[in-house]
């Protein structure tokens, strides 16, 4: 059985137009070519697709069943061709992006939407991980791009472009003893258990770790729940409060005598110099670079 796309298209068009001649006009072919193509299709399938009684062919019940399948099959064939063409021009088959846990409340989905609009055939996988794990995913090339906070020390394999600034704030449950003070000292804070978002690898020291006694979790959602349950204080994205005003009733931002407890970090789009990036990844990097060159409101 050797059925090709042109035969399927002719078969579909004959049913939709109601005749071989009308299908030929629509497809820019002579009627005999359409008639012969359908006859060959019937031979290949060993099925009678049209009753040739009267002036116009009448589809059989078998033809109508196949017609429903043909529409979807032609769509899939066209998608397959488009994807193959995209791959031939350098589009990666899959783009893995890791988003640092604390940044899940930002507008990172805007970038994914942009990619989908320009590369509809691209498969995109999104992962969430603590900062240290996100960097490791880049370096071992299990992810091609990462949205993460600026690092105090850059690995020589990293390359990045800045996106924006994000604020993190130290918070504690409203019912905790420290919440009763207008301000606390840094010493009081470090003597209280901290809930810290950290790598799953316990050999890696967490960033933003201050307390001597601390518990670890790998995402800020679970950290938030633990803090609400009065298990310790922690550092959470300020954006969480903007998106969920109910948190303000449950958590208090700690005010310190010693310094302003608001940590502002640049958010970077990061990739590895050792990775061979595809068209979509390079497109997003270039898009962000061009955005940075345009006049913009302060973050």
Automatic annotation (TrEMBL):
Residues 1-60 form the HTH lysR-type domain. InterPro entries: LysR_HTH_N, LysR_subst-bd, WH-like_DNA-bd_sf, WH_DNA-bd_sf. Keywords: DNA-binding, Transcription, Transcription regulation. It comes from Acinetobacter tjernbergiae DSM 14971 = CIP 107465. The keyword Cell inner membrane does not apply. Belongs to the LysR transcriptional regulatory family. PANTHER family: HTH-TYPE TRANSCRIPTIONAL REGULATOR, LYSR FAMILY TRANSCRIPTIONAL REGULATOR. The lineage of its organism: Bacteria, Pseudomonadati, Pseudomonadota, Gammaproteobacteria, Moraxellales. This is HTH lysR-type domain-containing protein. The keyword tRNA-binding does not apply. One of its GO terms (molecular function) is DNA-binding transcription factor activity. It comes from the Bacteria.
């Amino acid at each position: 059985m050797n059925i090709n796309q042109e035969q399927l298209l002719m078969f579909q068009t004959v049913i939709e137009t109601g005749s071989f001649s009308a299908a030929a006009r629509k497809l820019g072919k002579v009627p005999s070519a359409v008639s012969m193509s359908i006859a060959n299709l019937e031979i290949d399938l060993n099925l009678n697709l049209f009753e040739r009684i009267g002036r116009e062919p009448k589809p059989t019940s078998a033809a109508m069943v196949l017609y429903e399948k043909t529409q979807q099959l032609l769509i899939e064939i066209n998608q397959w061709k488009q994807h193959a063409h995209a791959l031939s021009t350098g589009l990666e088959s899959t783009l893995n992006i890791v988003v640092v846990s604390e940044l899940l409340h930002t507008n990172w989905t805007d970038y994914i939407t942009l990619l989908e609009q320009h590369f509809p055939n691209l498969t995109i996988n999104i992962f969430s991980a603590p900062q240290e794990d996100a960097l490791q995913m880049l370096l071992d090339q299990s992810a091609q791009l990462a949205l993460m906070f600026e690092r105090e020390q850059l690995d020589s394999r990293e390359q990045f472009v800045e996106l924006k600034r994000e604020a993190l704030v130290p918070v504690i449950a409203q019912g905790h003893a420290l919440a009763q003070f207008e301000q606390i000292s840094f010493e009081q804070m470090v003597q209280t258990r901290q809930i810290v978002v950290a790598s799953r690898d316990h050999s890696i020291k967490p960033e933003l770790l201050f307390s001597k006694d601390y518990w670890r979790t790998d995402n800020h959602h679970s950290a938030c729940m633990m803090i609400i349950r009065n298990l310790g204080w922690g550092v959470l994205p300020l954006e969480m409060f903007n998106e969920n005003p109910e948190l303000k009733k449950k958590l208090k931002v700690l005010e310190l005598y010693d310094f302003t407890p608001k940590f502002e970090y640049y958010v970077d789009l990061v990739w590895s110099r050792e990775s061979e990036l595809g068209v979509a990844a390079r497109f997003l990097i270039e898009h962000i670079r061009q955005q940075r060159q345009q006049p913009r409101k302060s973050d």
